[in-house]
Amino acid sequence: MCQKNVSAALDYLVQNNLSKTLVVFGFSKGAGLGFEIINQRKDVVAFIEFYGDVPGADSKDNEIRKATENLPPLLIIHGEKDKVVAVKKANKIYSIMSNNGNTVEKLIIPKVGHAFPLSKDINDLNATETCKIEIEIFLKKHL
Asked: Among 3.30.420.40, 3.40.1390.10, 3.20.20.70, 3.40.50.1820, what is the CATH number of 2-142?
């Protein structure tokens, strides 16, 4: 249901000329939804994934590899001390995506955990500023 709603929202933006460039952001579980969206829509030009996981990334079959071919550029952002979604997931996503020939960049933020942009901790505030800069660089490079 969520996937259908997100796709409908993107359709609305395109059909009403509200956006000529679609960039998908996914946070935590929403990152999994974002991966589903970019697999279905070829009009998304970039995907920024925060501390998430690829559905099926731990599967041993080739299904996940096939589902991650020919995707838009991806920026993976993850907190080094994330206890909800371990940083090894970010490394696994990076590996799968780059091995499939996708453009992928990874930013592991030291000293922060899960959902760091929502925190008031000074390390998290610094991480948020770092993310803003890196996202801007990534988007300038790929748009």
From this structure: 3.40.50.1820
